[in-house]
Amino acid sequence: MQANPHKWVAGHVSTLPKSGIRDFFELVAKMKGDEVISLGVGEPDFTTPWHIREHAIYALEKGKTYYTSNLGMPELRKGISSYVSANFGIDYRYDDQVIVTVGVSEALDLAFRAFVNPGDKVMYHQPCYVSYHPSIQLAHGEAIAVPTYAKDNFALTAEALEAAWQPGAKILMLNLPCNPTGGTCSKEQLDKIAKFTCDKDLLVLSDEIYSELTFEGVHTSIASLPGMAERTIFLHGFSKAFAMTGWRIGYACGPAVLIDAMMKVHQYAMMCASIIAQEGALEALRNGADAVAKMREQYHRRRDLVVRRFNEIGLGCHSPRGSFYAFPRVSDVGMNAKAFSVGLLQQEKVAVVPGTAFGPGGTGHMRACFATSYEKLIDACDRMERFVERSRS
Amino acid sequence: MLKLLLEGGRLTTAQMAQVAGIAEAEVVQYLEQLKKDKIFLGWRPVLDLSREAAAEAAVEAIIEVRVTPEREGGFNRLAERISRFDEVHTCMLVSGGYDLLVIVRGKSLQKVAAFVSEKLSTFEGILSTATHFLLRCYKDQGFMLESEESTSSRLNVAP
Fold first, then answer.
1. pTM of the full predicted structure?
2. Which residues in chain A have their CB less than 8 angstroms from residue B156's CB?
3. Burial of A96 per CB tally in 10 Å (0-12, 13-18, 19+)
């Protein structure tokens, strides 16, 4: 009998669309790498600070090559507990309220698998990180997209949540500051969202991976608001603030019962995060604050540069309060997201990501990551200006 | 602007103007003011002298100098006098087992040796010198030499 491999792929996986970013990645990969200025990445251009790398090398030399506790090394969990308390004002016990994961992506997957029954509804704001919708689907949940708008600087509002809410909604997924929009919420907006989640009795999954990269004001975690810690899973990691994307190290904090449920999935699926990555993370928490501050300062200047240039070029762009992404409107120059991104890549060799890769809310926008050098940003903006002028004429 | 100078040494004044969001003329004016205030003393390339193309003036020596301080002026007069020689690249007063740390550059070992023995060590007030010829430099003014970070495998597009 002739084998048909397609029939072995699970139905809910075979119907899952591939990431919209994937097509674009293939297109960029065909171009000669050196010629392309990429504003299409989702990671810092800095290499992990040397003291963190050196600490991990030392750990390897000392023979730290074994499994750790499922929850993660106790010293690291203690460090995370202190860090979250000092920086976010939320107190978690290290022994049963913190779990170390393989990046925030794993923490998110654990949360969906641990908390979503088939058919449970999960609300998430959109445009958003590419994996939220598929991760909900993979957990057999039903995703409810809540739109955010350019007129609000892509901040999520309680009014939009009210409008999108459906009976049976169980979870609200937040990502503030947001990839790809850089949108954040003010304290007042966050208070209203917190009240909404209490009224509707929702569990909140709060991905705060970009929180250290907040340029104006102070980042407030929804978990720090009165009564919210008991209904929030605080998700965070080291990738963005400490430039540790390839280490794949993150964590989740929350009520002990919920962390225990996530731990059950984690212990069977992953066992534990890499011990070397955990060692690096520990060093990052102990001595990484200066490097984070230095990187944030540079991102801030780069943000001001690209936002100003985009607006000069005629691509309406709000100033993102956090993250290292700008999300300008390409529809302002009469193009759709894909035509702009493909045209810019082919004619001027600048890679950006079409906003539609982040959901229908990204229509008419593109995401430009400003985590790259001043020279490259200036050059990329000049090339973009040429492209826009040419397409107008 | 000072931060920009320190972190982005390769930027032109036009690029600095773009980053800072001001006119290029303002950047030039600011740099002139920094020069007037003797904060910004000049530009100088950082070369890896082990490379053939940059091998001119490749010999460098680090010299520890012990000095008798003078009743009025301490170490300053002698330190300034030493600093005026073209061969002297750097001269600083330090704490510890010696007083002045002097970096001397020359086209050959003989020229550097001659400078130390015939000029430097003959100054009145100099008690002793200890000369260390530089064999290999690993990091110079913030730049790693002979060591490249691997960034070529970074993805051009990522979520």
1. 0.89
2. 25, 28-29, 33, 36, 38, 40-41, 351
3. middle
